[in-house]
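Quick start: read one record
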Amino acid sequence: QVQLVESGGGLVQPGGSLRLSCAASGLTLDYYAMSWFRQAPGKEREGVSCISNSDGTTYYADSVKGRFTISRDNAKNTVYLHLDSLIPEDTAVYYCAAFLLPYRSFPTGWASRTYDYWGQGTQVTVSS
């Protein structure tokens, strides 16, 4: 049984930082591109970032570029999202997701494609 379990969310003041983790079980991350999405109340789900499985190339939404950093540790079967310089507009439930990606392929259309697995989400609230 495949599971993606997010953790690390919480309440943080504007300008603060958080590190989200996504621990995978039942699958081998080496074969999957991994992404983070978020959904704020009353808004559409938004692709935040993606990291490929072959060379670790990263992709970011314009809204988070320069503030968020995605990384992966395949040995630990875990993906991370480091959130810096947080603003109230970053408040949302953050989800990790995985899709099977052939080695040396590019995760084209990562923000809108169909994913194989999703986590349950972790709440991030940015407020003073």
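The mean pLDDT is 95.
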